[in-house]
Design a protein that fits this description.
binds iron/sulfur cluster; two-stranded antiparallel sheet; TIM Barrel; alpha/beta; single chain; 10-stranded mixed sheet; 8 helices
């Protein structure tokens, strides 16, 4: 279920509620638009309109939870992911404030392990993130080398893959781990040799890798791989003893999977919301 909330200044804030058999997850936004311009992302085409306040971030949770309960939705909302509009590390102060509220037993009471913040890899903000929140960290990698990553993720021009890896290794506290997200694009980053490169990159870090067939996005050249190529990639990565999961974007049917929260056209509008 896709939610579009209108803030007091008219800004539109998007979230997606993704019910599953075992848990219901809410994907929330941290900014209106985004400045990071990833090639596969609808939001990246908008540019940054403005930051969301901590109040506007947690209001997405409050209103979605109320809507879901009013519909008699099951299971109850249990997980929060910052994978909607915006790069959370570009609004880190408000994101950390929101996480404190979401994980405070006197407020929302989510376990920190059920809150995940996904970044494109703004490496110099990692120490502040780890110091400020116990939430899970996801890093969107999406390519096995700098040349290809730079082609689809401009952030790589500022923080190379080596710099990102070094920052994770240096700043990640004991007992924490990172989830690497690797979106597969047909013929671009999905060869078995690319799995070898990816395995070499993550080896030695406490991590898991989520492999995600891409959603159709703004660049028509970036298409999902065939099931056979997906399977071959995952098998090769697993052969390196890397903990690998395949995530099939469950928000796809409403165009609300990662990187798609920009086209405000097929939405459930929560009337009269008081976001902001
Ligand atoms: S993928 Fe995330 S960081 Fe990249 S443009 Fe989209 S919203 Fe911004």
């Amino acid at each position: 279920m896709r939610l579009l909330l209108r803030a007091r200044d008219g800004a539109l804030v998007e979230s997606v509620l993704i019910p599953g058999p075992a848990r219901t997850t809410l994907c929330i936004s941290s900014q209106v638009g985004c400045a990071r311009a990833c090639a596969f992302c609808e939001t990246g085409r908008l540019g940054l309109e403005r930051q969301l306040s901590a109040g506007e971030i947690v209001d997405q949770v409050r209103l979605a939870r109320a809507e879901w309960a009013a519909l008699g939705g099951e299971p109850a909302l249990s997980n929060i992911v910052f994978m909607g509009m915006g790069e959370p590390f570009d609004n880190l102060g408000e994101v950390l404030r929101a996480i404190r509220l979401l994980t405070d037993a006197r407020a929302f009471g989510f376990a920190p392990s059920r809150v995940t913040v996904s970044t494109v890899g703004v490496a110099d903000k990692l120490p502040a993130f780890f110091a400020g929140a116990r939430a899970e960290l996801a890093v969107s990698l999406n390519a096995p080398d700098d040349e290809r990553r730079r082609a689809i993720m401009p952030v790589n021009a500022r923080f190379s893959m080596a710099a990102l890896r070094e920052a994770i290794e240096r700043s990640m506290p004991q007992g924490r781990r990172v989830l690497f997200e690797y979106v597969l694009f047909d013929g671009f980053n999905d060869a078995p040799e690319d799995a070898d490169l990816l395995a070499a990159y993550v080896r030695g870090l406490r991590c898991r890798v989520n492999v995600i067939p891409c959603n159709p996005g703004p660049d028509p050249r970036l298409r999902p791989p065939s099931p056979e190529r997906l399977e071959a990639f995952v098998a090769r990565l697993s052969s390196h003893e890397i903990t690998t999961l395949v995530r099939r974007p469950r928000g796809r049917d409403v165009g609300g999977a990662c990187g798609q929260l920009a086209g405000a056209r097929r939405l459930v509008v929560v009337q009269g919301s008081d976001v902001g």
